[in-house]
Amino acid sequence: MVLLCVGRVGVLLYFVGLGLSAKDISLRALSVLNSCDIVYLDSYTSILAEGGLDEIRRLIKPGKLAVVGRDFLEEHVEEILRKAEERRVAIAVIGDPFIATTHISIRVEAAKRGIKTSVIHASSILSAAISESGLQAYKFGKSATIVFPEKDYRPTYPYRVLLENLMRGLHTLFFLDFKAERGASMTIRDGLSLLLEMEREEGEGVLDEGCLAVGLSRLGSEKSITYAGSFKDLQIYDFGPPPHTLIIPGILHPMEEEALIYICRAPKKVVKEWTRRATAIKLRGTLKG
């Protein structure tokens, strides 16, 4: 979670990461959080892996917490900063500060007013998923979010990001959509199905049910799951409730292969075959370039 805390004159505007679980919240973050008069809890960016809203309510002094959605945080920046000039204000968001662009925009507006800011970092799904997968951080390319399709909106941007990364031999991390207003969280099965639909639409010939992927669920909780295998394997595997995250590897170093096989339980045959395919896709990208 991220905590934005604004004090009176002479007090910094704090952006504090609260991590992936209520149990991840640092002592420093709690101290700042409970020093504030108002705490706005961002309810749209993601959901807690463990503990949830009840645990947050227990950790924060009574009467401080207000659960707010995207509209409030994007359309009421002026109100937030105006209150911050008179009282101590906080915005709590799951993960590390500024992974979501909404929060950096608030910091920019604060800076324009001459309000000094300070950041307290915490774990985010971006760092946790890479670490848990055993893949090397410097070999990841651009990330993307796979969103729920709407009646007139079925973007294939995630597929184009994946294709670009694969042609460079890089891994791809996909955030999976979360619709707070209707309580809908995309699953790994949903994400894989949508990627295969995008393949059929785009027709680049890089994805099918035999491709290698890593599924991760509820990172930060004691009930987290990390499992790697073919798309077909992951579509029938029980990852339990969200939040879910998805990684499609690029070219694998031998140590990464072993991490996927022995830690993420991927079938060796699937890993070796994907290494061959990923190498061919990168060669195709090199020739195309």
Descriptive overview:
The protein has helices at residues 27-35, 52-59, 70-75, 77-84, 101-112, 125-133, 157-166, 188-202, 231-236, 254-262, 268-288, and strands spanning 2-6, 13-17, 38-42, 65-68, 89-92, 117-120, 144-146, 172-176, 178-179, 184-185, 212-217, 225-230, 244-248. The chain has 289 residues and is α/β, with parallel strands linked by helices. Strand 1 (2-6) and strand 2 (13-17) form a beta hairpin. It starts with a strand and ends with a helix.
CATH architecture of the largest domain: 2-Layer Sandwich
Strand content: 15-25%
Bulk shape: elongated
Structural class: alpha/beta
Total number of beta strands = 13
The main sheet comes to:
6 strands, mixed
The total tally of domains equals: 2
Q: Which residues form runs of ≥5 with pLDDT under 50?
A: 6-10
Q: What count of helical segments does DSSP give?
A: 11
Q: How far from one another are the termini?
A: 41 Å
What is the CATH homology-level superfamily of the largest domain?
A: Tetrapyrrole methylase, C-terminal domain
Mean pLDDT across residues: 89
Class of the largest domain in CATH? Alpha Beta
What topology, given as strand order, has the largest sheet? 4-3-5-1-2-6
Helix amount, in percent?
Answer: 25-40%
CATH fold naming of the largest domain: Methyltransferase, Cobalt-precorrin-4 Transmethylase, Domain 2
